[in-house]
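Justification of resources, computational component.

The compute hours requested in this renewal are based largely on the per-chain cost of generating structure records like the one below. Each record pairs the submitted sequence with a full structure-token output. That output is archived, and it is also reused by downstream analysis tasks.
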Amino acid sequence: SALCTPTLLITGEQDSKYTQMGDRITSIVNSNTGQKTVEHRVLPAGHAPHFENPEATAHTINQFVKTTIG
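The structure output for this chain reads:
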């Protein structure tokens, strides 16, 4: 079954492994659904953006919710 729920992936720019995985997941899911179901945001942080850059993480989540829910 396809992923239909809008999904936000957040990774840190210094964590190349998970940033690459986020890009790949976004590409695969969006290709399979034909929609922009998954959004991937890369923040100035390492492996744990929610700890290392909580303000940017909160802002990113708030913007996603506002644009997704309205």
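The chain has a mean pLDDT of 93. The two ends are 26 Å apart (CA to CA).
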